[in-house]
Design brief:
With about 170 residues, this protein is of the alpha+beta class. The protein has seven helices and four strands; from the N terminus they run H-H-E-E-E-H-H-E-H-H-H. It has a single domain, classed as Gcn5-related N-acetyltransferase (GNAT) (Aminopeptidase).
Length: about 170
């Protein structure tokens, strides 16, 4: 895709269904503008042309990194995500790339299982934290019970309201 429009619609819908605010569309467009050919959006559409799954990927040296992704509710039944990643791998091979970096996922999540199903072996990631005014690492995990009410509430917002509010909220999450 030449711009972030179709990607953002699918990404925003996807994170909304998961109860998470989305970054603004201009963020994704800025990434595409800044990284040029090293940042690409691949969107899978139905035979009728309806977008069902999309991924924004970065290319670096001999790697492709599918970094942000989104889909609509029909993607699973249509195998849209499977086709999307297969096509991304095919394109990476055509470019002569050697590494497909699927990124991190927490064990026990659907994302982790999806990647494992593709045959990818998990590689442990080690983290180091520098705590500021804290005695322990914050548990910013969506599976944490203290976030469940917020997640359920966010899911009930109309998508337009969620997309308007989301950028204000995500600024304070990172």
């Amino acid at each position: 895709d030449a711009n972030a429009d179709r990607f953002f619609a699918l990404f925003a819908d996807n994170v909304h269904r998961h109860g998470t605010p989305a970054m603004p569309k201009r963020w994704f467009q800025a990434l595409m503008d800044e990284f040029g050919p090293d940042c690409e959006v691949l969107t899978v559409v139905t035979a009728e042309g309806r977008p069902v799954s999309s991924v924004l990927s970065f290319y670096f040296r001999d790697e492709v990194l599918p970094f942000y992704a989104g889909d609509d509710e029909s993607a699973r039944d249509l195998a849209g995500n499977d086709f999307k990643y297969w096509e991304l791998m095919r394109r990476a091979c055509a470019r002569g790339l050697k590494v497909f970096d699927y990124g991190r996922s927490k064990q026990g999540t659907g994302s982790y299982s999806f990647k494992k199903n593709w045959g990818f072996e998990p590689t442990p990631l080690h983290y180091e934290y520098q705590l500021y005014k804290r005695d322990s690492v914050p548990q910013n995990n969506p599976n944490n019970a203290k976030y469940q009410l917020l997640i359920k509430t966010w899911r009930k917002l109309p998508i337009g309201v969620a997309n308007w509010l989301g950028p204000f909220i995500v600024r304070s999450l990172g």
